Every structure is written in structure tokens, then in C-alpha cells.
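A.,

Following up on our hallway conversation. C-alpha cells first:
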């Protein structure tokens, strides 16, 4: 199977290189415009949004959650893709109501240097984690952790994605995203058709089975419904695509990306659901699916993961370039600086993969919890347009970081505070509690800040 996977990587990489003409134009490299200066179309922008968010680790997580927690687990992961709706509303507010051309410009105007610095730190970690997580999945598809096949796959896929990304920047990413999304949809449709035709994917498979505890799945669904109000704002790949086209195209791309990505995630996750009902003993997801579907179908399963990984990698590189050069201004303006920034994030991602630390993955996986500090920003600053002091913003940031650190420490086994205090045992129950506390505390900080500003204005009248 590794030979066929290698052939698939070579084929996708070769086509992606053809679709990525080298550019020296800043607008093409950072804003995704064509060499003629035209912005991306609705179809291009929608497919790019979907394929960059349905990344390899997400697909695997959706299937694993379905495997262990049944349909509620897959639905919980699919609920995170409601972020396209809230993300579209966030872009509408920042760009078309407030009149800013980036999230950083908005935060700088509202909260100064402190606001922008906190945000840039968070999304830099997010981008590195995307590179790391997708390369990790690719490596494991080819071999055991640390094996020669694992190392070669990680380095090869990373370098190939970097080469075609640095040639054309965001424009190259958008063009290759369309190809990769079409290939992904073909693989997914064939995979689902085979599973349905063989009787594996049947309606009866979506009832709650004796081997599945649906409780954590429903809890995670509640967590997702709380986190979608801040999650898109901390994802630079999604936000960058909200500032490259006209208002109508941008709005529709977010709406269409929402339903299309949810359908794809549920379809992929359903394979994990049916596998969970039919697993034997201590089988894992891949072993069960291979037994049920056979090697050809599992090849499609793995190809879908590789396609999504490569799509996310090139988008992460494009956003890393924009973050470093345009938003943070760490490097001189120009395309060459963007390519240098991509190289830095490439190296960082590869280094993290080879550290091989379980704790490391746990740490990068809690970025969504840290991003909860942005929920009050979304509601109070972007949508309600209230005047909020910097201290409220920093208080929300500190609370969210503390909550994310607590969740990481609990999940990794370094602390055991929540269970003795609350009686909660499962990690998703702890995450729900932490999420709720962060949101409430952050909201109170913003309310207090708004009241303080209102009282000051009243005192000067």
C-alpha cells in the first residue's frame, strides 16, 4: 500500500507544481490575486475554505470520535465547522462594518500593541501546530513513528508542499486547493459508495451500540457549540480568505463552506461510527476498517488524508508568510521575505514532529481553548461595537491561557485538581467546565470594562 500512497503523493505534488506558477507580485503572493489582478471566484474561494479546514488530523479525529463515541462523537466534531458561519459574521463585522482590512488592524485600533501581540502569538502557535499535526498524520500513514518510511514521508511531503507554496504564495494555494478538493471529494464519494454497497454503511449502524459510550460525544458537542464563537478568529487560514474577494463572494463562500464541510466530515466520520459497532476485542480504527472494507478502500481512506494534509500545509505556509511580513512586519516587505518565513515554519513543524512527544501534541491541541479569550472580542467589540479598555482584553487573554494550561496539565496527568473538586472524570467534561468558566469570566471582564468606560464618559459630560 505504501507504494500506491507514494505514487499518489507524487501525482498530487506534480500537478500542484504545474498549477503554481512562480510570481514576484505582492498582490498575488499575499492577497491571492491572479497575475491579471483579479480576486478568486466564489467556487475557488469556497473549495479553498473547505479543503484547508478539513485537514488530515480533523478527518482522523472525526473517524476516531465516531469509533469510540458513536454518531454523537462525529456530530461533535462536525459542529466545529459551524465556525464558517461565525467566521463569516466576524469578517463581515471587521471588514465591511468597521472598515479594517485585517484582524490585526482592528485589534491594533481597539487594543493597541498589547492586543495585536497577544493575537499574533496565538495564531503563530496555531500555524506551527497545523504544519506539525498534518505531517504527523502523513508520517504515520507510511510507517511506525521513527521508522525510515515515516521520516522520508514527513520530509518529502513537507518539502513538496513548501516548494509549490513558495512559488506562488496564496494564489498558488487557492489554485491547488481546488484540485485537491475535487480529488478529495472523488475519493470520499467512492469510499462511501463502496462502504454502502458492501452493506457496511447502513442506517442500522448509526444507533448507539453496546461498545460505545455516547456521553462524552454529547459533552464534546456542547464544547464545540461554545467554542465556535471564538475558534474562527484564531485561525489565520480562514481569516485570510475573508479579505481577498468582494463582499458578496466572501459572504457566500463562508456559507457554502459551512454546509459542504459538515457533510464531508460527517460522511468521513460515519466510517468510524460503523467500524466502532463492529470492532473485535482491542482492534483500533484502521484495523477494523481494513477488515470491513479491504485494502483498496483503505488506500482511498489514506489518500484522502494525504490530500487534505497537503492542502492544509500550503495554506498554512501562505498564512505564515502573510503573518510574518504583512501583519507582524518582522521581515522587509516583498515576496522573498514571505518565502523565508515559509521556510522557518517548515523547519519548526518538522522539528516538532521529530520530537515525538505526546505532551507536545496535547499542548498544540488546546489552542482552541486558549482562543476562547477572543469570544468577548467577537461579541462586545466586533458585533456590539462597545468601547472596551485594554485591561479587559488582557484579563480575558490571561484567563483563557490559564484555562488552556489547566486542561493540558489535567489531560497529560501532571495535575488532578478538577476531579476531586467537581467529581468530573472524563476529559471532555473537564473541558466543558473550563470552557464555560473562561467564557463567563471573559465576558464579565468585558462588561466591567464597558461599564467603566461608560462611567468615565458620563463623568466628563
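Then the amino acids I'd put at each of the 461 positions:
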Amino acid at each position: 500500500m505504501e507504494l500506491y500512497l507514494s505514487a499518489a503523493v507524487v501525482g498530487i505534488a506534480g500537478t500542484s507544481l504545474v498549477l503554481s506558477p512562480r510570481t514576484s507580485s505582492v498582490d498575488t503572493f499575499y492577497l491571492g490575486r491572479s497575475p491579471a489582478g483579479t480576486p478568486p471566484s466564489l467556487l475557488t474561494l469556497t473549495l479553498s475554505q473547505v479543503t484547508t479546514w478539513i485537514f488530515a488530523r480533523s478527518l482522523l479525529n472525526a473517524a476516531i470520535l465516531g469509533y469510540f463515541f458513536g454518531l454523537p462523537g462525529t456530530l461533535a466534531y462536525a459542529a466545529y465547522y459551524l465556525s464558517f458561519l461565525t467566521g463569516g459574521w466576524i469578517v463581515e463585522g471587521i471588514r465591511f462594518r468597521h472598515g479594517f482590512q485585517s484582524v490585526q488592524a482592528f485589534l491594533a485600533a481597539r487594543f493597541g500593541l498589547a492586543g495585536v501581540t497577544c493575537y499574533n502569538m496565538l495564531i503563530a502557535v496555531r500555524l506551527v501546530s497545523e504544519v506539525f499535526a498534518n505531517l504527523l498524520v502523513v508520517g504515520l500513514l507510511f510507517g511506525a513513528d521513527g521508522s525510515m518510511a515515516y521520516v522520508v514521508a514527513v520530509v518529502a511531503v513537507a518539502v513538496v508542499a513548501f516548494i509549490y507554496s513558495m512559488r506562488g504564495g496564496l494564489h498558488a494555494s487557492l489554485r491547488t486547493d481546488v484540485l485537491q478538493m475535487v480529488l478529495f471529494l472523488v475519493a470520499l464519494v467512492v469510499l462511501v459508495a463502496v462502504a454502502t454497497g458492501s452493506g457496511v454503511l447502513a442506517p442500522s449502524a448509526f444507533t448507539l451500540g453496546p461498545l460505545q459510550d455516547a456521553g462524552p460525544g454529547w459533552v464534546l458537542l456542547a464544547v464545540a457549540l461554545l467554542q465556535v464563537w471564538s475558534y474562527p478568529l484564531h485561525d489565520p487560514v480562514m481569516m485570510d480568505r475573508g479579505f481577498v474577494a468582494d463582499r458578496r463572494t466572501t459572504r457566500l463562500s463562508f456559507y457554502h463552506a459551512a454546509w459542504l464541510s459538515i457533510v464531508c466530515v460527517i460522511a468521513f466520520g460515519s466510517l468510524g461510527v460503523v467500524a466502532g459497532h463492529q470492532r473485535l476485542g482491542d482492534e483500533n480504527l484502521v484495523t477494523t476498517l481494513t477488515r470491513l472494507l479491504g485494502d483498496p478502500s483503505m488506500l482511498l481512506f489514506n489518500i484522502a488524508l494525504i490530500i487534505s494534509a497537503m492542502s492544509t500545509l500550503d495554506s498554512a505556509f501562505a498564512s505564515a508568510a502573510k503573518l510574518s511580513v504583512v501583519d507582524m512586519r518582522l521581515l522587509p516587505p516583498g515576496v522573498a521575505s514571505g518565502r523565508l518565513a515559509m521556510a522557518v515554519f517548515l523547519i519548526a513543524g518538522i522539528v516538532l514532529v521529530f520530537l515525538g512527544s505526546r505532551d507536545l501534541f496535547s499542548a498544540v491541541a488546546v489552542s482552541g481553548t486558549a482562543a476562547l479569550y477572543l469570544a468577548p472580542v467577537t461579541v462586545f467589540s466586533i458585533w456590539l461595537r462597545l468601547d472596551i479598555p485594554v485591561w479587559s482584553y488582557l484579563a480575558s487573554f490571561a484567563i483563557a491561557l490559564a484555562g488552556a494550561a489547566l486542561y493540558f496539565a489535567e489531560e497529560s496527568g501532571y495535575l488532578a485538581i478538577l476531579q476531586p473538586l467537581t467529581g468530573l472524570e472524563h476529559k471532555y467534561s473537564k473541558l466543558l467546565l473550563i470552557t464555560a468558566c473562561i467564557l463567563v469570566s471573559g465576558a464579565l471582564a468585558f462588561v466591567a470594562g464597558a461599564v467603566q468606560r461608560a462611567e468615565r464618559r458620563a463623568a466628563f459630560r
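Residues 148-197 form the longest helix (50 residues). Curious whether your intuition agrees with the design.

B.
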